[in-house]
Every structure is written in structure tokens, then in C-alpha cells.
From TrEMBL:
<dbReference type="InterPro" id="IPR016181">
    <property type="entry name" value="Acyl_CoA_acyltransferase"/>
</dbReference>
<protein>
    <recommendedName>
        <fullName>GNAT family N-acetyltransferase</fullName>
    </recommendedName>
</protein>
Length: 348
């Protein structure tokens, strides 16, 4: 694996968006090596590697480094991409979602630096070049106070496995895969899980989806016994709201903090969180996920309950804004919310 014959000096630096065009061919070669090592993987013929790299470099908590050959006009000969994330739920996550997170995660959360990939041109592969890139990633991991670094290595990369072992990494798991031949070429069973825990139907029209109880899987009905549907949100002109990726944005229903049941307002309508929009009317996103105003809560006789005004309208938190009216974000890009003063959901 290692090439000791080429004597060259190198530099390693943080990648920028301007590097995307030069990194993309390297990442394509990285994908090809993964495809050769793993028979279960097959590269899409029309995949846009440059757009992928640009997206990763522009993504919050995503970092890339490039290895440059100083004797060849600083041409990029290697790269490393890492994405940092916290397995614990964010502190401002609504309580009803915290319940789901705890229910579905039996292991203690980690602060993870996930290595998306490391690639160096074959003629430049040696312990020095790999060390330069991995040291840069380690420095960032310590800076971000990451507790674990995860990297996926194929079984064929014995040299890389030996290097990682010498660098203090331990083998965490071994994955096996077996390709199964699909005998029947007819309609394939749907393997997409309902989201959020819903089954899509066309009967309600307008891309609406019926709401199901996550515990019983029964159809949720309003106080009048009618089935409840989640609809695509629309702007003031009736145009459907979409994410930056062009996906429809559905209403985000509220759950009771004690029973985890869906909540209905005084008119018998499903209570949903208002979508968060900036001063230009654009939906605020975090890593491609639309953000919503969370419900406001209060403690009553030692129990948490949804806050309501004097007319019985449910209240939602307000978003922090600076003096110019710009939404204030946390270091990880999450909008900051505060308890509402005296406004109702009807005024949103």
C-alpha cells in the first residue's frame, strides 16, 4: 500500500469551497476503490461528485483537509472529510421528541467525529502523508471535544488497518454482506419506513398523509371521529412550502407532555407547530431539516403541561432575534427560542 520511493514535501490545510473542483476527482477515485472492495456497492453513473464535495464543505460541523504536493505547484493529491455530531438530543429539543429519542436509543450517547473518507493518490501513499491528514483531523476532534473517532475501512485495506492500530484505533465491528438475486422482477415491496411513523395515501389528495398512533399503529381521529391528515404547509399565496432540497414540508404535530397523545385545540383541530421563517419568508433549516416554533410549557402541581392563554389558545415559544431582527443561532446552527410573553398560536 505504501510508496516510499517518492521523496516529496507536503502541506496539509483546511479545505475551502474553492477546492471542490479539484477534490471531486479524488473522491470519485475513492468511491471507485470502495466499489471494488465492496461488491454490494455500485456507483451511480450520473453522480455529481463536485456538488457532493461542495455540499459537505458548506455543511455545518463538516470539515475537510487537503494534502498538497509542494514540488508540483501545490496540486492537491489527497483529502480527508470528517463530520462531527452529538448522539445526544439537542438541549432545546421538545420534550415529546426527547421521549422518542430515549425510547429508541439504548446506548449512552457519544460525541462523534465520523470520517467520511480518506483518499491519497497511490504514488503519494506513505506513512507521512497519511499522518499529516489524520493529525489535522485529530486536532479538530480535540478542538470540538469529540469523544470518539469512527472510520470505516474495507477488509482489503490491510495497510490502513495496521496504520490505524498503531495510531490507537481499535477494531469496533466487522460487517459482512451477501448479494441476493431478485427472482421476481415485478413490483417491489416498499421498504421506506413511514415518516413520521405514517403511511402515505392518495385518498386524501394534495399529498396529505394520515396520522397514526406510534404505539397502537391505529389511525388517529379528531374529537368528531374523523381521520386526521398531515398536510403540506403553504405560504400566504397558497404555494406549497418546500425545503432547500425541494421536498414538501409537512405540518409538525404536538404531543401531550404526559400522555404523548396528539393534541387538539378548542376547535377540534390537530395542534401543529408553526414553521419558522426568516425576515425574507424563507423557511429556516438546520442541516436540511425545517425548523418549527416549539410549544411553550409550564409546571403545574409538579407536572409539565402545555401553556395556554386566557382564551385557551396554546402558546408557542418565540425565536431570539438581534437588534436588526435577524434570527439568533447557536454555535451548531440551531435557532434559539425563548418563552412567549402573551401571544397565541392564532396570531402566528
Amino acid at each position: 500500500m505504501f510508496n516510499f520511493s517518492k521523496k516529496t514535501s507536503y502541506t496539509c490545510r483546511l479545505a475551502t469551497l474553492e477546492d471542490a473542483a479539484e477534490i471531486a476527482p479524488l473522491w470519485a477515485k475513492f468511491a471507485q476503490e470502495r466499489e471494488m472492495a465492496d461488491p454490494a456497492l455500485s456507483i451511480k453513473s450520473d453522480f455529481d461528485f463536485q456538488a457532493y464535495i461542495a455540499q459537505q464543505l458548506n455543511r455545518p460541523l463538516s470539515y475537510g483537509w487537503v494534502l498538497e504536493d509542494t514540488q508540483n505547484s501545490l496540486s492537491i493529491v489527497g483529502c480527508l472529510l470528517v463530520y462531527c455530531y452529538d448522539e445526544a438530543p439537542p438541549p432545546d429539543l421538545p420534550l415529546e421528541w426527547q421521549f422518542e429519542h430515549e425510547l429508541n436509543n439504548p446506548f449512552k450517547p457519544r460525541r462523534v467525529g465520523s470520517v467520511l473518507g480518506l483518499y491519497i493518490e497511490p504514488e503519494y501513499r506513505n506513512p507521512q502523508t497519511i499522518q499529516l491528514l489524520t493529525d489535522a483531523a485529530l486536532d479538530k476532534a480535540y478542538e470540538m471535544k469529540v469523544s470518539h473517532l469512527d472510520i470505516l475501512v474495507s477488509g482489503e485495506q490491510t495497510g490502513m488497518q495496521a496504520f490505524l492500530s498503531r495510531s490507537g484505533f481499535t477494531k469496533a465491528a466487522v460487517q459482512y454482506t451477501k448479494e441476493l438475486a431478485i427472482i421476481d422482477e415485478g413490483e417491489l415491496p416498499n421498504l421506506h419506513p413511514p415518516h413520521p411513523e405514517l403511511k402515505i395515501t392518495e385518498e386524501s389528495g394534495d399529498r396529505s398523509i394520515p396520522l397514526y398512533d406510534p404505539q397502537t399503529q391505529e389511525l388517529v381521529r379528531n374529537p368528531d371521529g374523523e381521520p386526521v391528515f398531515l398536510t403540506v404547509l403553504r405560504d400566504e399565496d397558497g404555494i406549497p412550502l418546500t425545503t432547500s432540497a425541494g421536498l414538501p414540508i409537512y405540518a409538525n404535530p404536538v404531543r401531550h407532555p404526559q400522555t404523548q397523545d396528539w393534541v387538539f385545540d378548542r376547535q377540534g383541530q390537530l395542534l401543529v407547530c408553526p414553521v419558522l421563517q426568516d425576515d425574507r419568508g424563507q423557511v429556516v433549516e438546520l442541516q436540511g431539516i425545517p425548523q418549527f416554533y416549539p410549544p411553550d410549557y409550564e409546571m403545574v402541581n409538579g407536572q409539565l403541561r402545555l401553556k395556554q392563554d386566557e382564551k385557551g389558545n396554546y402558546l408557542f415559544c418565540d425565536v431570539e432575534r438581534d437588534r436588526e431582527g435577524t434570527i439568533v443561532l447557536s454555535p451548531d446552527g440551531s435557532p434559539l427560542f425563548k418563552p412567549v410573553k402573551a401571544i397565541s398560536v392564532a396570531k402566528r
